[in-house]
Amino acid sequence: MKSILQDYEEQRECFYCTCKSNLQDHHVFGAANRKLSEKYGLKVLLCMKHHTGQIEGVHGQNKALRLELKKMAQREFEKLYGHEKYMKIFGKNYL
């Protein structure tokens, strides 16, 4: 599924800094929920610096960006499916 957070065709750039190179898919809810992020379009493009970078990456030390993406994803999911379904699927409220 396409992203419900970012139009990949229109915005082929890092969701955070608008860099246009070294882009990677970031599944907002990863690990056990990666397939659910894919299914519901809860993903964005991030440059390597903001995806896997040790300091500024969501998989590094950038907890603020990680949390903000989870909040955005929850809001967009709930617009389409509601809070109850969000909680049933993901089980944690970030708002």
Topology:
Blueprint: E1 23-27, H1 34-40, E2 43-47, H2 48-51, H3 63-81, H4 83-90
Antiparallel strand pairs: 1-2
Helix pairs in contact: 3-4
Explain this structure to me?
With 95 residues, the chain is of the alpha+beta class. It has one domain (23-89). 40% of the residues lie in helices and 11% in strands. The protein contains four helices and two strands. The protein has a two-stranded antiparallel sheet with strand order 1-2. The model has no long low-confidence stretch (mean pLDDT 94).
Q: What number is the mean pLDDT?
A: 94
* Contiguous helical run count: 4
Beta strand %: 5-15%
In order across it, which strands form the biggest sheet? 1-2
What does the main sheet amount to?
A: 2 strands, antiparallel
Write down how many β-strands occur, each being a DSSP E stretch of 2 or more residues.
2
What string, H for helix and E for strand, traces the elements in order?
EHEHHH
Distance linking N and C termini: 24 Å
Total individual domains: 1
| Morphology | globular
Percent in helix = 40-55%
Return the structural class: alpha+beta
Radius of gyration: 13 Å
